[in-house]
Amino acid sequence: MIFLAVGDTRDHRRAGKDPALKDIAVEFVGNCVANLHMLGLDNYIVLASSPQLCVKLHAEHAVHSCVWSSLYNAHPGLPAWHVNPGDMFHLWLQQWHYILHAVELGYNVLRSDSDVYFTEVSKCLRAAC
Q: What is the pLDDT of residue 21?
């Protein structure tokens, strides 16, 4: 299982630094999923910060395995940590929770950023043709 996450810039620490991240992140996930599909890898899940983001990913990039969660939205530590529901740091906390459970269920998980490119080494190169 390949685990990706996508959020927006509601995190006050990042919004001023890179306001375009909200849109770029969606493009990164769309490109990454298309890249995985070209390699025959469709066993991915995208954790998004909102249902609207899943709808956008589905409509614009045919991303079908997208979910969102309210896990830890009411956690009493969030205000002390200066984290709000929907922030990237909140999303990272959620994703590691779900990855832990997937591993406990026996899944092999690759947690990846979405601004990466996956490739396949040809059989000829592996066999030193």
A: 60
Distance CA 11, CA 93 (A): 14
Q: Rounded to an integer, what distance in angstroms lies between the CA atom of residue 41 and that of residue 115? A: 16
Q: Which amino acid makes up residue 125?
A: L
Phi/psi class of residue 77: alpha, beta or left (left: φ > 0; alpha: ψ in -120 to 50)? alpha
Query: Cα–Cα distance between 70 and 91 in angstroms, integer?
Result: 10
66/107 Cα distance (integer angstroms): 18
- Per-residue model confidence (pLDDT) at position 8: 58
Classify 97 as helix, strand or coil: helix
- Provide CB contacts within 8 A for 70, sequence distance 6+: 85
Residues 99-126, mean pLDDT to the nearest whole number:
82
Residue 124: the pLDDT is 56
Residue 60 has pLDDT above 90, yes or no: yes
Residues shown for the chain: 129
Find out whether 127 and 46 touch, Cβ atoms under 8 Å: no
